[in-house]
Design goal:
- By secondary structure, the chain is of the alpha/beta class.
- The protein contains 14 helices and twelve strands.
- It has helices spanning 15-23, 50-58, 87-95, 121-152, 156-173, 184-187, 219-231, 240-246, 251-260, 267-278, 303-310, 312-316, 326-331, 335-340, and strands at residues 4-8, 40-45, 62-64, 67-72, 99-105, 198-203, 235-238, 281-287, 291-298, 318-324, 345-347, 358-363.
- A six-stranded mixed β-sheet has the order 2-4-1-5-6-7, sandwiched between helices. Strands 3-9-8 form a three-stranded mixed β-sheet, with helices on both faces. It has a three-stranded antiparallel β-sheet with strand order 11-10-12.
- 38% of the residues are buried.
Length: 365
């Protein structure tokens, strides 16, 4: 589907440990910087309890969940924006993703070296934030140089872009991440690193795996949460140690193990959901005897474009969408009941698909 969250962080914060458990890809996780050189991509199912309910009603043979992609990007270091530690290569990988999952070390372990010698969430966040900001500033300055002459000639689009670039430069000169500014939504069109939405993940010791970041008394977690509040960014606590153990267990053993820790879901399932929410995505369904299939689109997507998520021909030849809301599908015990009770709606090209819609697209190519 193409929606990607890039996992970033300083070396040795537990990124690759979390990624390994998340995707079961088996990426090397070593106690030294740059053990991950090329970004590793894993496609992860997004947990959705509605799937099994819909499948049971429709007697579907197969269930296909929607997914989100996570990219493990090698650890950034101070000076990355100037090429330190293969920085330019890594920054290029971050540019390619839709959102950033910033893993911050909040765990204590004398056997795992911290790149700066101490556990300091604010300092770690500042290092990465500064490198992304400096990379953006360099990019903006180059783009301003290129576009100024065109803007002076009266080109309307160039003038509008130059105005946006000037605004971005003003904030970046002040050390402000662009996503936190009032003009954030407009500046996002420049596709700069500090415009990308961010989810902070605190990698904690096992005893804090079930803690609420907003009430946790651990000093490192407190500092992480306070910083995230300033940026109006979500925070999730995950124990890489716990997730590594969970990934090795059978399904029934996983539930028992998590229950003992006070968790209903693994941290990685919560991360998949949080990444999905961070990108402001919604799920619609196609349901039938062969399969119950979850599909992803961005919020406020019109029916033809949603149809295109299934197949490009569906969008090109779109005629109409037959839609049943999730609640109506459940209360009417399926498509037939919804039809009989007048709960199936016929929608055209301007219909905005809603989260939970069960849709049958009619098309002609």
């Amino acid at each position: 589907m193409g929606f990607q969250c890039g996992i970033v962080g300083l070396p040795n914060v537990g990124k690759s440990t979390i990624f390994n458990a998340l995707t079961a890809v088996g990426v090397e996780a070593a106690n030294y910087p740059f053990c991950t050189i090329e970004p590793n991509t894993g496609v992860v199912a997004v947990p959705d309890a509605r799937l099994s309910i819909l499948s049971e009603i429709a007697s579907s043979v197969k269930i296909i969940p929607t997914t989100i992609e996570f990219v493990d990007i090698a650890g950034l270091v101070k000076g990355a924006s100037e090429g330190e530690g293969l920085g330019n290569q890594f920054l290029g990988h971050i540019r390619a993703v839709d959102a950033i999952v910033h893993v911050v070390r909040c765990f204590q372990d004398e056997n795992v070296t911290h790149v700066h010698g101490k556990v300091d969430p604010e300092g770690d966040i500042d290092v990465i934030g500064t490198e992304l900001l400096l990379a953006d500033l360099s990019s903006v300055e180059r783009r301003i140089d290129r576009i100024q002459r065109k803007a002076k000639s009266g080109d309307k689009e160039a003038r509008e872009e130059l105005a946006l670039l000037d605004t971005a430069k003003r904030y970046l000169d002040e050390g402000v991440q662009l996503r936190t500014t009032p003009e954030g939504p407009e500046l996002a069109s420049l596709e700069l690193l500090t415009s990308k939405p961010v989810l902070f993940v605190g990698n904690v010791n096992e005893d804090l795996a079930a803690a609420d970041p907003s009430t946790c008394e651990n000093e490192a977690v407190k500092k992480l949460y306070q910083h995230a509040q300033k940026e109006d960014a979500p925070v999730l606590l995950i124990s890489g140690q716990v997730e590594a153990e969970v990934s090795q267990l059978e399904e029934d053993e996983k539930k028992e193990f998590l229950h003992e820790l006070g968790l209903e879901r693994s941290g990685l399932e919560r991360l998949a959901v949080a990444g999905y929410q961070l990108l402001d995505l919604i799920t619609f369904f196609t349901v039938g005897p062969k399969e119950t299939h979850a599909w992803t689109c961005e919020r406020n997507t019109a029916a033809p474009q949603a149809a295109g998520k299934i197949h490009t021909d569906f969008e090109k030849g779109f005629i109409r969408a037959e839609v049943i809301s999730y609640d109506d599908f459940i209360s009417c015990k399926g498509e037939l009941g919804a039809r009989e009770q007048g709960k199936m709606r016929v929608e055209g090209k301007t219909y905005i698909v809603k989260d939970g819609d069960i849709v049958h697209f009619r098309f002609n190519v």
